[in-house]
UniProtKB/TrEMBL annotation:
Gene: ftsY
Keyword tRNA-binding: no
Listed InterPro entries: AAA+_ATPase (IPR003593), P-loop_NTPase (IPR027417), Signal_recog_particl_SRP54_hlx (IPR013822), SR_rcpt_FtsY (IPR004390), SRP/SRP_N (IPR036225), SRP54_GTPase_dom (IPR000897), SRP54_N_sf (IPR042101)
Location(s) in or outside the cell: Cell membrane; Cytoplasm
Lineage, highest ranks first: Bacteria, Bacillati, Actinomycetota, Actinomycetes, Bifidobacteriales
Descriptive protein name: Signal recognition particle receptor FtsY
Catalytic activity, EC: 3.6.5.4
Length: 422
């Protein structure tokens, strides 16, 4: 037998062995796959058993853990699933249960008196208490000309205004309690009296909805308030806070979302209203005519016998004639249903004298009846209260104290002066 034949035999044997091994591997793989599929099917479908009885194997199974497992299996089969229980509950309760809304817990707004107390406390902690600076200067034994210049500079930096500052300095110079004594108590009393005169202690700052006879009038028609101002003064937020203030007084309030320019304005107003049960009238689409929203709000407020209707408007620049004219249109259209007896201009107190030019244009365009100074706490220059009243001839009626939902309070002159002197 030659070498070539031997090699051929060896190769043939190797091929046979390889074929046998491959056949064995394929058979094992097929068996494992078949067994896995059978197990999966069993876990999904469960063991087959004749109707009305358990399988014989289970019946003859060993006691103990096996019987406990069988009992648990029977209990699981008898117990309805979570989905089954939900379906049964829905079927039993019927449509009435399905349509019942979740009860909303309404908030209770803070009373006006408590807010005024907080106003005084917050002003005393302000980073710009110009009254305190004035007192420290005036309490010196002998006031020099330089000291009087410091007094006037302090007033100007606090945005009191040039005319009001000059008037106050002249009156203080001629007050014997300041120039004739160094008694701190008398100096403080003199300064307090002069500041109260400038702020206007006897000024009527009540909203028309709070005046005597407003309750009887509201039985016939709601008091209508329009909120106006430039962008970024916190107008919509102030409208929401004002609604809370009226709710705290037991009044029924409706709000109109006539700011149709800013997409989130109506949603923001609805969020404020939902917390205290105040209905908000809004348009179904952005960019709608704000006058039509004001008209619908006035009609719904009248139909609902509301005490107060608050109409929020879009912020606008005072130098845009067409936008300012739109405010006049909103008022005219709303007055086809209800008379507008309050127009509140919202001013950012931190802008100081820069806000005066804005205020004058709004006063001419729509005729404001009062001012709301937002952001009076913190770094605000309190002298703007004096300046804005002198320039516009209308009172500051409300002030914003901070970011909280009840941080809006009726303006109280004595509390304001005591706060800046504290």
């Amino acid at each position: 037998m030659d070498t070539t034949m031997i090699i051929g035999i060896v190769l043939l044997v190797a091929l046979v062995i390889a074929a046998v091994v491959a056949a064995v591997l394929v058979d094992r793989s097929h068996k494992r796959r078949t067994t896995g599929e059978r197990n999966d099917s069993s876990s999904r479908i469960g063991p087959a058993k004749p109707a009305g009885q358990q399988p014989e194997a289970a019946a003859t199974a060993a006691p103990g853990a096996s019987s406990a497992a069988i009992g648990q299996s029977q209990s699981d089969e008898a117990r309805p699933s979570q989905a089954d229980r939900s379906d049964l509950a829905s079927a039993a309760s019927g449509p009435a249960a399905m349509s019942a809304p979740a009860e909303r817990v309404m908030e209770t707004p803070e009373s006006a008196g408590s807010r005024i107390t907080r106003l005084k406390a917050k002003l005393s902690k302000s980073s710009n208490p110009f009254g305190r600076v004035l007192f420290n200067i005036l309490a010196k034994d002998h006031l020099s000309e330089t000291d009087w210049e410091d007094v006037e500079d302090t007033l100007l930096l606090a945005d009191v205004g040039a005319d009001a500052s000059a008037k106050l300095v002249d009156e203080l110079r001629n007050d014997a309690r300041v120039t004739g004594t160094s008694d701190p108590v008398q100096v403080r009393d003199a300064l307090r009296a002069k500041l109260l005169d400038l702020v206007g202690v006897d000024t009527d700052r009540r909203l028309n909805a709070d005046k005597p006879g407003a309750a009887e009038s509201a039985s016939l028609q709601p008091s209508v308030i329009i909120m106006v101002g430039v962008n970024g003064t916190g107008k919509t937020t102030t409208a929401g806070k004002l609604a809370r203030l009226f709710v705290a007084e037991g009044k029924k309030v409706v709000m109109g979302a006539a700011d149709t320019f800013r997409a989130a304005a109506a949603d923001q107003l609805e969020t404020w209203g939902a917390k205290v049960g105040v209905n908000v009238v809004r348009s179904d689409k952005d960019g709608a005519d704000p006058a039509s929203v004001a008209f619908d709000a006035a009609q719904q407020a009248k139909d609902a016998n509301a005490d107060v209707l608050i109409i929020d408007t879009a912020g606008r620049l005072q130098n845009k004639a067409n936008l300012m004219n739109e405010l006049g249109k909103i008022r005219r259209v709303a007055e086809k249903v209800l008379p507008v007896d309050e127009v509140l201009l919202v001013l950012d107190a931190t802008t100081g004298q820069n806000g005066m030019a804005q205020a004058k244009v709004f006063a001419e365009a729509i005729g404001i009846t009062g001012v709301v100074l937002s952001k009076l706490d913190g770094s605000a220059k309190g002298g703007i209260v004096i300046a804005v009243q002198k320039e516009l001839g209308v009172p500051v009626k409300l002030v914003g104290l901070g970011e909280g939902p009840d941080d809006l309070a009726p303006f109280d002159a004595p509390a304001f002066v005591d706060g800046i002197l504290a």
